[in-house]
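Late entry, written up from scratch paper. The run itself happened at the end of the previous shift, but nothing got recorded in the book at the time, so transcribing now.
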Amino acid sequence: MSSVSIHSRRTISIEPSALGALRRSRTRHFYNESLLAESQRDRIDVVLVSPRNPLNIGAVARAMANFGFAQLAVAAPYAPHWREAKSAIGAPDVLQNARSTECLGDAIAHSTLVIGTGTLTYRKPEQPVVPLPALAPYIADELARGGRISLVFGPEKHGLTRENLSLCHLLVEIPTDARQPSMNLGQAVAVCLYELVAHASALPGSASSDLAVPARSSPAAAPSGSVDLLADLIDQTMTAAGYSPTAMQQANRHDLQLLLRRFRLNRADTHRALGFFRRVLWRLTHPAK
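Output as recorded:
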């Protein structure tokens, strides 16, 4: 039996097993030490596409603050006064510092990995689908390459459109009951960020890891804005070459967006492709005499 003195006047007896447990508990990590390092969280953007209810945007900001994330972008919001949402309890800075863009393409322009969210109840995916519990390794790998990530959430009523998803590299599925597949926007963001945090302790470079993030041999993919620039140029080249009738141009552009993101071109490859198609387009529009 061991004893611990309290104020030198009385003692409390503690069983050896209990004393050992007490000592071990002092060495355990606190639950919030499993968060990603701040430098990593700053390279993960939460992007909301056309959110309708300012209260939902505020709830998203609060969920982000709960897990230490601060980078919020709102693309084409319906309500003009969404920054004043009172539901952002404890997270007013996240709302005030959020980026506002006219379209999704502008919101993700600097991201090298764009991840769309949703369920597969009403859609047929055209890009790889990753279950939410398996998402953390994809995030870790992209961070290790020096990339930037956008986690994209669609409007409350119908989620991301087919056009929105054509700008995404992956689709992460949030498992829900088929009888109620849709989820509140704030809840969806909270669930996704929690999954990242819950698995962060096993990832190199997290706040609770003693390992440094290893450098990958292959560089990060080109940012989404550069991919869109290449898609525009190829689209112009196809039009100049009379590749397909006007009625098919929108469908061709959709397929082109998906194809380029499957290639995962890096910056150097994208630069070379831009030079190639610029030359071809110039030849098509300036034929030799």
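The chain has eleven helices and nine strands.
(Scratch paper discarded after transcription.)
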